[in-house]
Amino acid sequence: MGYETLEAQDGKEGLRLAQERLPDVILxxxxxxxxxxxxxxxxxxxxxxxxxxPVVIVTALGDVEDRVRALEAGADDFLTKPVAxxxxxxxxxxxxxxxxxxDHLKRHQEWLEREVRKKTKELRKxxxxxxxxxxxxxxxxxxxxxxxxxxxxxxxxxxxxxIQRMARYSEVIARRLGLNEEAVESILYAAPLHDIGKIGxxxxxxxxxxxxxxxxxxxxxxxxxxxxxxLHGTPSGFVRVGETVALYHHExxxxxxxxxxxxxxxxxxxxxxxxVADVFDALTSDRPYRKALSLKEAFQIIEEGxxxxxxxxxxxxxxxxxxxxxxxxxxxxxxGSSKLYQLIRSLRSEEGRPVSVAAWIKSEKLKxxx
Length: 370
What we know:
By secondary structure, the chain is mainly α. The chain has helices spanning about 10-20, 35-45, 65-70, 85-155, 160-175, 180-190, 205, 215-220, 225-230, 235-250, 270-285, 295-305, 310-320, 320-330, 340-345, 355-360, 365-370; strands at about 25-30, 55-60, 75-80.
């Protein structure tokens, strides 16, 4: 019939040849020395290397029960002796077509699996790249926010470390309160914008070394509304949170804060969180009119303000995070007052008051100082 054949004298040898050479069709007699044809068939069908090879049981047994046993052993077909050559040819052609179809499907499946692995690898790489790009964008956004915030802080006595510390304190509180990661990040990014409105406060008030009078204090309080106005109307989620923080971070739990006199849960949570972080860092930092308080005194003031100045749950959460707070403070120390602040304060008018930033920038003294 034109087929290449392999012959074996017993079941054991036939099994070995089948496993080594992987033929396209296997013809098995039932009655063989050693392993029977049914046993060999079972072993072939149990082996992943040979389980797809069509097996034809060739037997003199003609009972229905024998045929059922052959099918149960995994046989694909059977022939009864004596075998008619036309029937053998037809069975072989049919089974070879089945085998070719199986091989084609198997190759196609393997190709698909390779493509899936390839595409999965490419997709994973793309997701990793996207995740890394997103991480860098977030870090850059935070850096931009810190620098934008310092535009206001440079005119005040604060340093860049102040806004970084209070932002990290706020992050710790938000996470310990159980907020989801998106909310925690929004507060981390929004917190540095809390005093951005100070950029609109006149120098003679913002830089005044002594206490403010009533009129000056009313102007200073406007920095909350100025900051909210600066940040208003953006599609950015964390900048919208920043608008809320800028407007409400001086509200008090008992309703005696400003600018709206909100009380309790009327005050947005982000602003309640930032209020604790900002006050603590202000207490533990040097100011022109006083030296920094000790950490013990600062924690005591936060505790005493619980329920009046601060949201009790937020304040307790902050106090419970004392070790984390101290670690952040140690990692982000002050490096002294900002250079610009020092320069501005060193330039006095005849009356002993700081000159305005605009006047200072226009002056020839800028060239000398730089």
